[in-house]
Design a protein that fits this description.
This protein has 282 residues and is mostly helical. Helix content is 59%, strand content 4%.
């Protein structure tokens, strides 16, 4: 039970903020779930009602990151759209449990690529890993974003609506050319079936990835995004400096990139103590 005009007003404000369509869709989906769950007029919703909803998410086993994301969306809706900041002000954010993601080895990445029977899906997985892309970024790629002369990929409006360039491997370029000859894309590089003007859905790629890792015999809890993690970790282990990796990944701050130091312990713990270096000089 909710007035659709409230969702429209939220959409208008998000559009004026310059949010991406993906962000706007996420806000819309979240608030529709919240308001449907509470099932009462928006003006009658209290702080306790919203606490009940967040508690419901905990009961469902949602992660702290997901719950906090919902918290932020609820906060925007009530403070910016309804201008009732006092209702959401008492809502606490959940303390984040920082778990390091599982990292795929180079052998496991190769197994994934070898077990992917569909050329389109294989090309997507290879591009995510070979260039360190987010799943949304790879699905928004255009044919014109591939620069085979400079061996670069242009990423338009990545996270935070920022453009950047990242590397393109020779092996990936060959795969992309095979894909181009087979599927003949016009503008959008990856599309579902014969709908060349529509992007593929993330769900499709996630389902295909899940079946591929099962076929490859990989038991780790990984997603397509894990290929991006592997890209960064493997570059770091091969001696690429962290500032270059930050640029390739499109991170806003070095803090986001520094997590890969923890994911590459062999690199960190192979460092000699300065005490040993002093002893060697004696």
């Amino acid at each position: 039970m909710y007035n659709k005009n409230h969702i429209k007003e939220m959409t208008r404000l998000l559009t004026l903020k310059g949010c991406t369509p993906g962000t706007i869709n996420a806000y819309q989906a979240c608030m529709k779930k919240v308001l449907t769950f509470l099932d009462k007029p928006v003006d009658d919703i209290t702080t306790d009602d919203l606490l009940d909803y967040l508690q419901h998410m905990i009961t469902l086993g949602r992660t702290s990151s997901t719950i906090n994301q919902n918290h932020s969306i609820i906060n925007f809706f009530f403070s910016q759209v309804l201008r009732k900041h006092h209702i959401v002000a008492p809502l606490p954010f959940m303390r984040k449990i920082k778990k390091l993601p599982e990292i795929l080895t180079i052998t496991e990445v190769e197994a994934i690529l070898n077990c992917s029977q569909n050329l389109k899906h294989k090309t997507i997985f290879m591009t995510i890993y070979g260039s360190g892309l987010r799943i949304g970024e790879v699905l928004r790629l255009r044919v014109s974003d591939i620069d085979s002369k400079k061996m670069q990929l242009r990423i338009k409006e990545g996270k935070g609506r920022k453009d950047r360039y990242t590397i393109l491997s020779e092996r990936n370029l060959k795969c992309l050319r095979d894909y181009y000859r087979t599927y003949q894309p016009n503008d959008l590089l990856f599309f579902p079936y014969s709908y060349k003007d529509k992007p593929m859905s993330k769900n499709t790629i996630e389902k295909e990835f899940k079946s591929t890792i099962a076929a490859a015999g990989i038991n780790k809890k990984v997603t397509p995004h894990s290929l991006r993690h592997a890209f960064a970790s493997h570059l770091l282990e091969n001696g690429t400096d962290i500032y270059t990796i930050k640029s390739l990944l499109g991170h806003s701050t070095l803090r986001s990139t520094e997590v890969y130091l923890q994911l590459s312990p062999s690199l960190v713990f192979s460092t000699k103590s300065p005490l040993d270096q002093e002893s060697a000089n004696e």
